[in-house]
Structure formats: C-alpha cells, structure tokens
Amino acid sequence: MFHRLRRQTLLLGLAWVLLSLHFAGVDVSHVYAACPVFPTTVPAADSARLIEVIGCANATVANDVINLTNSTYTLTTVNASDTGLPPIASTATGGTLRINGNGATITRSTAGGTPNFRLFRVTNLATLTLNKVRLTNGSAPDSAGGAIANEGTLTLSDSTLSGNTAGDGGGGAIYNNGTTTLNSSTLSGNTASYGGAVANLGGTLRIINSTLSANTAIGVDGTQGGGSLANYAVLASVVIINSTITGNTAVQAARSGLWLGAGTLTIQNSIVANNNGANNCAVTGGTFTDGGNNLSNGTSCAFGGAVGQNTNPLLGALTNNGGVTQTHTLLSGSPAINAGNNAKALDAEGTPLTTDQRGTGFPRILDGTIDIGAFEATTGSLSVQLTLQGRANPAPHASRVVTVNVQIQSQGGGTTLYNQNFATNSSSTFSIPNLATGVYLFTFKGTHTLARQQTITIDSGVNLTTTPVLLEGDANGSNHVNITDFSLLATAFGKTNAQVGYNVLTDFNNDGIVNISDFSLLATNFNQIGAGGVIP
After folding, report:
1. 212, 336, 455, 486: which could join 372 in a potential S-S bond, CB 3.0 to 4.6 Å?
2. Burial of 397: CB neighbours in 10 Å, binned 0-12, 13-18, 19+
3. CB neighbour burial string for 318-351, b if at least 16 within 10 angstroms, e if fewer
4. CATH of region 379-470
5. What band does 13 get if pLDDT is binned at 50, 70 and 90?
6. Within a 10 A sphere around the Cβ of 402, how many other Cβ atoms?
7. Alpha-carbon span 359 to 186, nearest angstrom
C-alpha cells in the first residue's frame, strides 16, 4: 500500500510540474515521463522523441518496434560517434530494433552551421531493420557511411537513400562491414571517394529487387572508385539479384559502375548498363561470377547468354512508377522483358520473389517469364495491318510482302524509345511483341513510302491497329517525294527484277517491274513530305 501511494504521489507531482511549465509558457512537448511501451509510435516530425525512444530500445534486451509517421524527422546535432541518432546497441544489450517508416524521411538539417554526421550506426552484433523510410543529407566527410555505417546486421526494405555523402572511408549511402540486405530499395544521388552508393569492406552484401542509380565515386587515385559499389576486401561478398544498376559515374571512369577489387561478386537476372557510357564492371581482383540472365550495354562485365553484353536495355528515367521507391521502367521493346530466369529470382532466404521492386500490386513474373532487373513491365503486343498504296492484287499476294520501319516515342513525341524493322506476311500484317503498356506515338515507314504516324494505346494482351495509307514514291528514303526520286525511277524505268538496272526501291507497287504504274504513284505524291519531316 505504501509503495502504491508513493508512486501515485510522484505521478501527481510530475503532472503538477508539467502543468505549471505549460501555463508559464514553457515548451514541454519534448518532456517525457518514461520510456514507452513498445511497439511505440513517434509523433510526426518529433526528432527529439525519436532519439529518446531509440535510446530506450537500446537499454533493454527486448526486441523493439518503432513506428514513424509520414513526416520529416530533422536531425540537427551529433548524438555519438559522428552519428545523429543513438548508435544501435548489440542484441545482447538492446535486442533487435525495427523501425517502420510508413513513408517518413529522416534527414540531417540543411541549416547553416549544422555539423557533419551520418544518420545511423549499427554497432557490432547489433540488428536493425528499416522499412519504408527515406534517409537524406547524411554527411561523413571524415569517416564512412554517409547515411549508415553498419558493423552488425542491417536490412532495408522499400526504402530510399539519396543525397548522402562520405569521404575517404567510403560508402556515400552505406558502409558495410557486417551483413547488409537491400530489398526493394533505391540508392540514388549519393557520393563518396569510393563506393558512391555502397562500400563493402569485409562484409556480406545482398542487393535484391533494388536500384542503384546516379551515384558517384569522386576518388582520384587508383585505390578508389566504384560509382555504385566498391567491394574491396578478401572476405567481402556481394550477391546482386534482379536489380538495376545504371547512370553511376566515377572519376576513375572504368570503375563507374561496379568495382570488384577483392572478395567475391555474383550477379544474376540484373541490368548493369549505361554507367558513364559503358563502364559497367571493373574487376581488378577477387572472383566475379556471372550468374546468368544479365544485361549490359558494353563488354566490361563480359556477360554471356542470349542477351548478355552490348545490348541497350531501353530504360526509362528514374521516377515514381508506383510503389514507395523510384524505379527505371523497361521501355517498349526492351531486351530485358521476359529474358530472366524464374528460378534465380530469390530473396535473401532463397524464397521466390513475388513482387518487383514496387511491391504489392506489381507481380514479379508476368507473361510466364520474369524480366531482367528490378522492374517488371506490364506488356502487350501490337498486331499491325499496313494499308499499302497501289497494290492491284488482293491479299494474300507476294506484292504485299514488304519491310517496314517502326519507331515509337512517348505520346507527345521526343526521344525515340524503339526503332525496329519488320517484314510483313503476304497480307501485309506483322506483330510487335513486348511493348510496355501506355500511350505512344508510332511512326510507320515502308522502304519506299512516306512515314505515317498514329497515337496508339497499348494494353496488356493483344492490341490491333490498321495504319493510314502509306504513300509511295520515296525511292531515296528521305521522307520527301521529289526530283531525286524521279531521277532514280527514270534510270530504272522499263526494267524487271531479272534485268540489270532494275531498282527495287523504285518498284513502288512491288510487282517486279518499274513501269508507268510506279510513275503514276510518284506523280500522285510528288513534293509530299512524310510525318516527322525530311530525313537528312
């Protein structure tokens, strides 16, 4: 009875103190009576309370969960060890810790005078899981790991690490000397002397269903580099599965993508392309394993297989394509579509992946075969019926077998996303497979026709279209019927396909002879210009 009365008296006394401070105009928003009961939710943008509850989690061996709200938690001062938040304690002292971000951002303040510090440090034998959180502006210019330095066990899922920096210690976003697993996460715009996104020293690193994009290694000497990743110790091990590594750079240009200086590196079902041109892989030591079904736009990775090397993956820009992290889409006609190996699409526990990087609502396998990289394209095919000019014989007929060039742009035009030639059947039809769903501007141009354009919506499954009439007469392929085309026709006039001087490019109706019918087609369309303008 005595102890209960004493506790009630203390609580009433604390309440009276807080109430007095409140009416005196003192901010008591960060005055807390005790550690919370876990799991606990940190109020929106309350970085002081976040620091407190991490300290509370460190103090007991229980396995704790901290939930954040979808807001920004701004850190302004160093807590310990060049780190803005309390270093995560070992499991023997603090148990495991899971932080569910729910879309929250944790950032170092951008205000002038803010000291340099990373955001998290996971100490030896500690375990931290981060889920759906964004870490930005961490800075460790005299140390390692701009956002996180890991010496224990770190798991990131559905998270983004961007705009973080480190110095000669490496790892613009993450320095790893423990075990780190990236699941469905994006590391972009991070910078360090080496390992622009991740520096792996003696640790185990698994990158699964994730994107490393536009990171930079600024080191100038031969011991530095790795725009996206540097793996540089004998015991260091990296496995990359169904991930996309693109747009990274390094001062040591050859090391702009992945740099393996020592240890082991295994890649499967992944895109490593367009890193500072085609500087995608640099192997100066260690053991590199091509796990198969990889794609690169150069030869530095020496990928084998049906897709392998020297192949443009046709990636869209890094942007929000659904889910909680940014991704690179696979554009229509990407060779990564349906080119992966289903059996190799595994998470860190060896369980088959069920979604792509974007998570729920975005299946990992469509059309029966997984795509290469972190993004699974929703695709359809397009069956095209060409409308040809000047064909006297109804289909099917040999005169209706033609070659047509197809170019695809976004709906409003701009950069060409797809450029491919197709041969039709005798009914002037053909099919374009593996087109990403969306609305596109299609340009169709026959060997000696003017170009015509259509805006077409591609849905999943089979889509159908019939082109406008492809106007004949463009013998020199300039997309303009003019005197040059007439001169070519005049030279070949009267010749059949069995005679010297016959020019198939002036046989506009494709009947095997250059005659008055072809002249008539040219005359009808003389001085017309096809869609897209004159081709230089």
Report:
1. 336
2. middle
3. beebebbbbbbbbbbbbbbbbbbbeebbbbeeee
4. 2.60.40.10
5. very low
6. 19
7. 13
Judging by DSSP bridges, how do beta strands 258-260 and 229-231 pair with one another? parallel
The residue with tokens 């002249």 is 519
Contact predicate 451/474, CB 8 Å: no
Closest CA to 170 of 217, 101, 106, 122: 217
- pLDDT tens sequence across 400-448: 999 999 999 988 888 888 899 999 999 999 999 889 898 999 999 999 9
Gap between the terminal Cα atoms of the chain:
96
Three-class SS of residue 431?
strand
What is the token pair recorded at 513?
A: 């002879």
Q: Could you tell me the pTM of the whole model?
A: 0.83
Give a three-class secondary structure readout of 278-304.
CCCEEECCCEEEECCCCECCCCCCCCC
- The residue-averaged pLDDT of 272-300 equals 97
Distance, CA of 7 to CA of 15 (rounded, Å): 12
- What are the Cα distances from residue 293, in Å, to 297, 299, 303, 306? 14, 15, 8, 8
Nearest 10 degrees: Cα torsion 185, 191, 196, 202: -90
